[in-house]
């Protein structure tokens, strides 16, 4: 710890020596129509040929020694604003940019700062919300994660699922942040949709390599999702009605230019539509249903020019259930019974944030959060027997539940002494409370309730970081940092010092090469039962017996802008240690066994090449991506200790995502994906065996031999999705209709494979498919 503080002090001392009398221009960059901050807006000084970038809260700081500046404020899809002025002292300039009426072809000029070759970070992709909303969607439900799956280096796992497997990692290795708060289960509908409502989102950023030091706690990626802040100028709303869900978003000022709010809700109605059909078929005695809902809320309050407060809340739940109620009469006794079976899971996330501009060069963000994720599997049975003037009630219930709760606080600081340094530093602490899996039952037939399973575990995680974006020369720039983290659990104290380094070198104004080296540590694990992202997955901490996960990643790439396109090619090599997986035959249902006894600990490695051509503006926008990769795992207790392909290893992956605004009020979009089939374990030989049952009777059985883990591949996966939208402006706003087709040429892609039998009784490998061609329709509106 002393070394860390010495390094931090040295960084500030070195910066202060180089920091002569300078003038700082700072402020915020916002959308003129709504007051929303423009994250990542560019500020470029034509005189010095240097600039700045607005942070996550729209704040920028630019320092110069000149007596005048010629500033250009720009953001994709907005009109560039130019400010020329003489400066003699520190000055605050708050800028509001107006949206372009029509997104014409984007022309790269020397006046603009193009992030792709200028920024130091690698493996970072920002997808405009407009593109996310326009691309075809499964059942018409726009999904952020489905779009991220189309990017190089990101895979979906199984057909239709919203899980993300980034550069060979698992879904637990993704740091998913909603307004800076980790989301532990980001899936609805058993993994087919994510919890993020696109109407409530301002910005989405994916980082899959070259992680800055301010991020930690996961190995494979960061998905940073920022909610809208609410319109400061006027009351607005939008919503949609689809096949399976509807949603409504309202936003506006509580006090104009001072306080705003946004409230967004989404709910499916599969249960409501199916209820009358099921009840009619069962004479009203049975009911089966499923639904999920999301509720996002945020209040944004400007205290004064230097202080701002935010309160954001997310709540979302899934519930699937089956209920029945009936009676029968026997020997003048009436028996009424009721039973219910179901499962439910959900997240609650809350964050209180305070932005404080300490001075024109130092920005602070303090965050206090509470979050929880719960999974609950339950069954209840109730019986009442009545007759002859007496009655008797019987009740039996059982429940399996797990979850995780977090209380956290963090402080982040950004210090911009001059355009050649951008220093970030800070720290955080998280108190985790894990419920790894508890079975409980109660019955009127027993005097005491039964409780089995793991006890609740309390753990504390903390971290400190420092990083600096340094302009070494006009062509060479580096991001250097350290992330120090620790984890206290059950008497054990794990510590990890993680150096991070990323550098870029400009070959010319539009071309650069980049390299990065990062190490990461993760102190929590996800015990996964299935690739669907089922809620039965259990979050558990590192313990004295099961250590943390660790990784190292090297990456090298080339980046270029060319006629409005952002072109990139990246190669990476990644190692992972401390991975866990259920031993053969073990599941979360082994309630009489501690989870630590059920798992094997191993390692993984992944390497590959990723190519991307992206166009963010213009009448035709989108991207084409290609990935070649290889991902393997090794566990001493599995596959004879030999390396085997990861289940979601995919050698080749191609994605094309395009949108075309072909008329003023018409747009067309398409998505085409191709991927090598996932790995699967299938038997290669079968033997006849014999054994005796418990009564001593000889029995015969068949023993299947598996040559190795994941020894076969599914057929290649490919699919075409289409979407067509048209809209009309009205006196009250805008209305829009969207027609979509998922899997347009009806490809029967493999969902899973198993051993089956043909009509003659011979064994064969059988493929099961899930989604045929599915049309969809939705109606949306804005006012």
UniProtKB/TrEMBL annotation:
Membrane topology: Multi-pass membrane protein
The keyword Cytoplasm is annotated on this UniProt entry: no
Gene Ontology CC entries for this record: cell outer membrane
One Gene Ontology term of the molecular function aspect: siderophore uptake transmembrane transporter activity
Signal peptide: 1-20
Keywords of the record: Cell outer membrane, Membrane, Receptor, Signal, TonB box, Transmembrane, Transmembrane beta strand, Transport
An annotated GO BP: siderophore transmembrane transport
Residue ranges of every copy of the TonB-dependent receptor-like beta-barrel domain listed in the record: 286-743
Top-level taxon of origin: Bacteria
Subcellular localization, as worded in the UniProt entry: Cell outer membrane
Keyword Phosphoprotein: no
Record domain TonB-dependent receptor plug: where: 140-218
PROSITE patterns according to UniProt: TONB_DEPENDENT_REC_3
One protein family per Pfam: TonB_dep_Rec_b-barrel
InterPro entries: Beta-barrel_TonB (IPR000531), Plug_dom (IPR012910), TonB-dep_rcpt-like (IPR039426)
Family label: Belongs to the TonB-dependent receptor family.
Record's protein name: TonB-dependent receptor
